[in-house]
Amino acid sequence: MNRFRATLLAAAGLAVFLGIWEAAPRLGLINPAFLPPPSTIPAAFGREVALGVWTAAVLSSLSHYVVGLACGAGAGIGLGLVAGMSRGFEAATAWVVRLLRPIPGLAWVPFAIIWFGVESSAAVFIIAVGVFWIVFFATQGAVRGVDRDLVEVAQAFGFRGPLQRLVKILLPAATPGILVGLRTALGQAWMAVVAAEIFGVEGVGQRMMQASSLLSTDIVVVYMLTMAGLYGLFDTAFVALQGWLLRWRA
């Protein structure tokens, strides 16, 4: 009953939000050129699909997203494991991390253009940078948070080498924390997609900038909702995968 009531309240809240959004431009409270009513969005979406623009933009952004996420997350997990296992490595890289960590992903755009040109590889680089630090710190913290008693027991049973400890103890115990970081990275990567494409790389971000320059705000909203929907699908799939990987905790 509580779940049903929560669903009704959520649906009612969404309906009120859409109603206010629809009424504001219709009543002249907001210029429709600046904020189109939601009733115009399906037609704009249909036009984009019919022209083939939507499909091309989404496929391009998905390729940037997947490759950038894989590169950034892979590097973050790898270096995070090393930093979590080795105090010496952490100490040696401490100042480097403090220097680079505060730099936002957008600040790397000029270098991305210089190094890679206005190409997909530049977008992948920016997305990877945005994802890397989230996964790195999540992995390092998860490894450091492993119960030391487990490590001592593993050593007592003969798992003394770093690789043995990693595979048998640290990685399984740290997996829940690493997965939390990866889930956060899923959203961060989507936010980085737009930033990575606004300087001319083909994709959703580029199409949004083109539409905004023409005051085609209905098309801008189409791609905003597209990104929200795609993120929802990725997040739902990841939660299902997370549940399967951590089924031993049930």
UniProtKB/TrEMBL annotation:
Q: Which residues cross the membrane?
A: 62-83, 95-116, 122-139, 219-246
Localization per Swiss-Prot or TrEMBL: Cell membrane
The encoding gene: ssuC_1
User: Per its record, how is this protein called by name?
Assistant: Aliphatic sulfonates transport permease protein SsuC
Which Gene3D superfamilies does the UniProt record give? MetI-like
Q: Which Pfam families does the UniProt entry name for this protein?
A: BPD_transp_1 (PF00528)
The UniProt similarity line reads: Belongs to the binding-protein-dependent transport system permease family.
The UniProt entry's GO CC annotations, sorted and at most eight, read: plasma membrane
How is the protein disposed in the membrane? Multi-pass membrane protein
* Protein's organism: Methylobacterium gregans
- Domain ABC transmembrane type-1 span(s) in chain numbering: 58-242
InterPro entries this protein is in? MetI-like, MetI-like_sf
Alphabetically list the UniProt keywords: Cell membrane, Membrane, Transmembrane, Transmembrane helix, Transport
Provide the GO biological process annotations.
cellular response to sulfur starvation; transmembrane transport
